[in-house]
Amino acid sequence: MNRPIKVRASSNPYANPELFRFVGSMEGLPEVSEIADTVEERSARTGWREKGHALFGSAGLLMPGIGIAIGLATIGSAGSAAIGSYVFEGAASPVSPILIAILGGLLVRNTIGVPAIYELGLELCLKRILRVGVALLGIRLSLLAAGATGLVAVPIALATIGAALLLVTWLSRVVGLPKRLGMLIAVGTAICGNTAIVATGPVIGADEDEVSYAVACITLFGLFALIVHPFIAFELFAGDGHLAGLFLGSAIHDTAQVAGAGLLYAQQFGDISALESATVTKLVRNLFMVGVIPLMAAVYHGSSERKDEVAKPSVRQLVPFFVFGFIAMAFVRTLGDVGERPFGFLDPDVWALVIKSTSTVSTFCLTIAMATVGLGTNLRRLQMLGLKPLAVGLGAALIVGTVGAGMIKLIAPMIG
Question: Hey, where are the domains in the chain?
């Protein structure tokens, strides 16, 4: 039995060695060994507990990337509001949240860089959250409105796609670019940016370097167009959001970049119709992949003896599934707008709140995706590309933009 320590009041308490017996024992605190599960604990889990553990682990891998993208989107919104409140004394901010988010991502990527731990989450943002945002945009439009815009977009898309395929392919031959690389840049500019390049690469036997070069070229010029084209469109079409959206949807390469440009225009100039018509126009362009990619394969292999290189693209590559999501949401909007009470039982105010909430979620998803675009863009790739691909990429962007603007000016009196 331990006897109590006896210390005289007059003595020096620090002179008693027994006083420090428990120092360092962390008495009163829990003993910590391993926070994460041991191998034995993990192997003991079965059934739903094992699946839940795996899902929990996946969330841990995804959170860093998702967190930084959401953080940049939030900074964009807060920064834009602060500029309006403090710099312009409460007036509308001249800098949109999405522009701040993109520039913030570019700054991070091209200064301190993006560590590998963020990659999985950022990939989810760009591939999944973006598609959710685009699909949810359909709630803004009825099928009638989307169909009307789509009909107008068809001749514009035909003209820009034809010009890109013919003139960009010719330009690539003039500057001495390899045939397959020229075709990839042409199809990426004409239709759906990186998606079209990745889908076309296997059917013409392109190697990884050619696909990588084409993607880098399209990404760089598409990002430039994302930031600049909304302001060009505002001036070019005298502030008409519908016409501006047609231009953005036909002149910018990738779906993500078109959605970002439409949102930037909407935030910058207060006209949401630009985002709506830009999205519909881009989806119409996407649908042309069904015919253009097999055509490119036929053209390439018609003059090539290596017909064994051909690979058939899947339906999912030819028609992105978010296109059907957008149409489905537009169909829901159409049904909800029929009659005095949406779907026969909803209160109109509740339906209006559903539309507003869905639109808000869509906008935030797109802002997150655009922050990811900034984080994923390495401007040093300009040095990697060399002058020839850059010249073709610049020429392609100018050709598509000029033809698209000309077609819109031509048909504007008919749709005004």
Answer: 63-415
